[in-house]
Amino acid sequence: MGYRYPDDGPGGDATIEAWGADLAELIASAWRGALEVMIEDAGELRPIREVPLTIRAENPEELLFAFLDELLFRKDAEGLLLTLDRPEIRAPSSETDRGEPGREEGTAYEARATARGEPIDPARHRLGTDIKAVSFHQFAVKRTAEGWRARIVLDT
Amino acid sequence: MNPKYVRPISDCIAEIPTDYRACMQVPVHVYATGALLGSMEDGVFEQAANVACLPGIVGHSFCMPDGHVGYGFPIGGAAAFDADTGVISPGGIGFDINCGMRLVATSLNYEELEPRMPQLMDALFERVPAGLGETGLPGLTPEGFRDLIERGMEWAYEHGYATEQDLRRTEENGRMRGADAGTVSERAVERGHRQVGTLGSGNHYLEIQVVDPGSVFDEQAASKLGIDGPGQVVLMLHTGSRGFGHQVATDYLQSFSRVMKPKYGIEVPDKQLACAPFRSADGQAYFAAMQCAVNMAFVNRQLILHRIREVFSDVLHGTPQDLGLQQIYDVTHNTAKLERHTVDGKERELLVHRKGATRAFAPGMPGLPPEFAELGQPVIIGGSMETGSYLLLGVESGAATFYTTAHGSGRLMGRRAAKRRFHGADIKARMRGAGIHVRAKSKSGLAEEAGAAYKDIDAVVEAAERAGLSRRVVRLRPVGSIKG
């Protein structure tokens, strides 16, 4: 798993390319990439607050989007910078990761994860640039030979 | 090199004709002179052409001299849609709804103020909430916030944060009347209520600026606007609706992209262009929610101005009146507004989207403060933190763009590239050498905002003037910069 910041995204924003062996790893590495835009020493965040997350989505794109959106929401609404453990994902089918015919809407993917971190403290944290939103611009989640890959443009 | 299909039709306008793409209903007009046009990415032209495909677009799909690639719509883009047959699109307004500029005069002379600058900058940095995780009004409840977003600057006035003149000298008098908090999600309220009165980070700033000798283009107009001459100190603010506006935009982009095709039969070339008919229930709900975010941003800038007035009073031992801390004007550069414009000799009601573009009403148009009615609308354009900014006025010939002009200098270099090339500490030292006092919460953020990462602001406002979109009144030079 990993991430990088390619140079070909829109100039005013943070573009991230993230990858992982499976969808859960992809989500964890994409968030790590986002977190490191906002704080330079994300590894130093103390796990003094624990936030359980349950995210449901129709497809892998929406699932990744919803995770990033939720963690940014916690940053704004509760002032928390959180690291994300690899989520447990219940997918429609581990073979194809595609929806089964006749499946009820809104139940395709369910992911549970724990986010840990602490309130933002400008006196202790080396802060970078705030992320305001996840955009749909060039947003893509792909299955590759090695696993999963995503491109995300974050509005900063 | 620009694609062949972008062809100059005058010395400041380049056109992309409708035969470039089958879905285009109107041509694209790019307002830029040679060098600026040459520096625009191809993506800008593609995006402006996509906008020309949206239902109900009237006139042209416009790109301003500072245009660059945005999400869906270009930043520096403007488009007017027929109110009855056209659409409303969150992507045409921007995530940071009512991101805007406020300019405040003082009666201070920089030569006299300079020795106090370190103390003043420290106090502003300490007391104006900026950067990640800062809170503006700790006591504000979600309920109070709902009231605030419906009433905008009137809320600020009633709570003692604004003067009557502040309201009068704000676009829309600081309140869009169609705001309805019932159209805003709980999530947006939760994100927003902690953030009113905070500057944010990225390209948002608070600057202390000075009028240099030779930088006043129209002395008479400048004086009526409150700019008396060289040496005068002014303050400029650039911020918007913070996480609140972003949540409103995200919520409606998601709902529009779900209903757009099945319910309204609209297909768009890019998900970020998701839209709904303006007169539909979906369109009206977003319009009401957007107005809440517009009001929130006006109050956000107002609360920061209130804090600035307190700090100046404390440090310089005088009332805000003594110090001449009077608002010149507050403009928004990310909105959609219902306006009446003449199209082919007929007056029509249009929903004018401006994203990274500023309304620039001509003299005598409705909605201007009475004291500026004969001058036209003040327009505030911010450059990079190392260069300068401008106060402009709207002009008659602005009718060509439904009275819209540029909003800033526009990025030339990506944040990542700027961070690799520049270092926060070097930039701080260089700016100090150039007489600019800097206080920044984030060193890397400072590198990302280096002056060289932006287009030439002088070229942008000059192009806007030559194209007849606005005229220059004063150029302002930064002497103090506070960044989140």
What is the topological layout?
The complex is a heterodimer of chains A (156) and B (484).
Chain A lengths: L1 E3 L9 E7 L2 H16 L10 E9 L2 H19 L1 E5 L3 E3 L18 E11 L13 E2 L5 E4 L4 E8 L1
Antiparallel strand pairs in A: 1-2, 2-9, 3-6, 4-6, 5-6, 7-9, 8-9
Chain B lengths: L6 E2 L4 E4 L11 E4 L2 H6 L2 H10 L5 E12 L6 E8 L4 E2 L11 E10 H4 L3 H11 L14 H10 L1 H6 L5 H5 L17 H7 L12 E12 L2 H7 L6 E8 L2 H23 L11 E2 L3 H36 L9 E7 L1 E10 L2 E10 L2 E2 L18 E4 L7 E6 L9 E2 L9 H7 L2 H10 L3 E4 L2 H6 L8 H10 L3 E14 L1
Parallel strand pairs in B: 3-4, 18-19
Antiparallel strand pairs in B: 1-2, 2-3, 4-5, 5-13, 6-10, 7-9, 7-11, 8-9, 8-19, 12-13, 14-17, 15-16, 16-19
Helix pairs in contact in B: 4-11, 5-11, 8-10, 10-11
Describe this structure in words.
The complex is a heterodimer of chains A (156) and B (484). Chain A is 22% helix and 33% strand. Chain A is built from 2 helices and 9 strands, in the order ββαβαββββββ. Chain A has helices spanning 23-38, 60-78; strands at residues 2-4, 14-20, 49-57, 80-84, 88-90, 109-119, 133-134, 140-143, 148-155. In chain A, a hairpin with a 4-residue loop joins strand 8 and strand 9. In chain A, helix 1 packs parallel to helix 2. Chain B is α+β, with helices and mostly antiparallel strands and 484 residues long. Helix content of chain B is 33%, strand content 25%. Chain B is built from 15 helices and 19 strands. The longest helix of chain B is centred in the middle third of the chain and has 36 residues, at 281-316. Chain B is globular, with a radius of gyration of 21 Å. Chains A and B meet through helix 2 and strand 7 of A and helix 8, helix 10, helix 12 and helix 14 of B.
